[in-house]
Write a sequence for this structure.
């Protein structure tokens, strides 16, 4: 099937035996019985003997970051994050026969459940109120009494895919005759218009305060006397004037909204969320990751990265960089040095001279075609080679031909 090789219980076991899985950080041990959800995480490293003992005693195992341990999951999510334009994360869940690991709840993400092994019985319920439609935050654990009738009840078997949007309550339990291994892929967390406006409105207000004296004028001296909830039923011309003034300032705020700059700030956050790109063998050979520098005969050799005006280059991928104009200067954010563990690293960026902006835009617009270093719109050849070398060293640029033949 199409899902074969994505992740298996053998991969789960291999991750544990690799010795890097930590309870609470990468692995949760859970149970749900008689309406009570419990977490049973010890501290420290998740040793196979301890983990499999928990499983044998009826506990579910949730691997929180399978992409850190599985190249196939990493590759899968890296394709999806590009497709969705939003962080794609995953958890894998291994549940013993006849048990349930989690209480009914809803999440703040779009969820795609792919059954990998065994079977699982699912019940899905629509949002209970308008306020729970596409919620910003996940729910607490819910009780059976708080649920109505499911809108979907089904048994997923290996290869089946179930999608439910944010706010749909769900619970899954194992049938008595089979274990279950599934992966939940998530996307669109905090990726709504409201989340975008949270970035945009404060920036618009800051610009309005700087550029428009009306926003800096003082409030009426007596406004506390006629405004406020206690005065909300009072008929007063001063109240009407105050409300109209506020409305007019809010409407005028649209004129100061730096929409593109706010999008760039969202993109910068997204690049921090991103997994690093998965390289093909040919991409490795044509990038710094395949560069043949090594120690030989008592010293390093093949160290020098020699880029000339005739070297043909292109971005490794279109979506791995973002130019942002910030107070401190022009920043180029990039994903090539990100970790496979979510936010393990600080955001990666280069501070660029403003005159390099055109060259970055040129590389973005030229993708996927190669261009000669000489064609970069920098003033001098030295600057062209310097920029290309810097971007190559960060894994952002690849060359049409390997720079050094091994």
């Amino acid at each position: 099937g199409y899902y074969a090789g994505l992740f298996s219980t053998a991969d789960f076991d291999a991750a544990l035996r690799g010795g890097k899985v930590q309870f609470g950080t990468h692995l949760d041990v859970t149970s749900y019985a008689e309406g009570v959800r419990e977490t049973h995480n010890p501290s420290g490293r998740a040793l196979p003997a301890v983990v499999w003992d928990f499983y044998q005693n009826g506990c579910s195992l949730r691997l929180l970051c399978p992409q850190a341990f599985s190249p196939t999951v990493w590759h899968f999510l890296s394709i999806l994050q590009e497709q969705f334009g939003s962080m794609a994360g995953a958890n894998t869940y291994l549940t013993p026969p006849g048990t349930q690991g989690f209480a009914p709840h809803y999440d703040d993400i779009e969820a795609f459940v792919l059954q990998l092994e065994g079977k699982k019985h699912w019940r899905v319920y629509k949002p209970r109120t308008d306020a729970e439609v596409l919620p910003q935050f996940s729910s607490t654990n819910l009780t059976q009494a708080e649920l109505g009738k499911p809108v979907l009840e089904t048994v997923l078997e290996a290869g089946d895919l179930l999608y439910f949007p944010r706010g749909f309550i769900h619970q899954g339990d194992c049938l008595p005759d089979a274990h279950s291994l599934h992966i939940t892929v998530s996307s669109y967390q905090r990726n709504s218009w409201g989340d975008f406006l949270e970035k945009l409105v404060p920036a618009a207000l800051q610009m309005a305060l700087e550029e428009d004296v009306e926003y800096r004028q003082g409030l009426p001296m007596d406004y506390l006397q006629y405004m406020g909830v206690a005065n909300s039923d009072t008929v007063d011309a001063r109240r009407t004037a105050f409300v109209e003034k506020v409305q007019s300032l809010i409407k005028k705020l649209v004129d100061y909204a730096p929409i593109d700059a706010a999008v760039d700030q969202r993109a910068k956050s997204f690049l921090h969320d991103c997994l690093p790109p998965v390289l093909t063998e040919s991409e490795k050979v044509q990038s710094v990751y395949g560069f043949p520098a090594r120690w030989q005969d008592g010293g390093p050799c093949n160290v020098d990265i020699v880029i000339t005006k005739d070297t043909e280059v292109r971005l490794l991928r279109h979506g791995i960089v973002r130019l942002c104009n910030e107070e401190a200067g022009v920043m180029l954010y990039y994903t090539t040095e990100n970790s496979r563990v979510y936010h393990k690293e600080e955001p990666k960026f280069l501070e660029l001279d403003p005159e390099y902006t055109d060259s970055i835009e040129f590389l973005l617009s030229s993708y996927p075609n190669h261009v000669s270093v000489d064609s970069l719109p920098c003033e001098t050849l030295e600057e062209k080679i310097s920029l290309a070398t810097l971007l190559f060293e960060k894994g952002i640029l690849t060359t049409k031909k390997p720079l050094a033949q091994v």
About this structure: The two ends are 39 Å apart (CA to CA). Residues 284 and 290 are 5 Å apart (CA to CA).
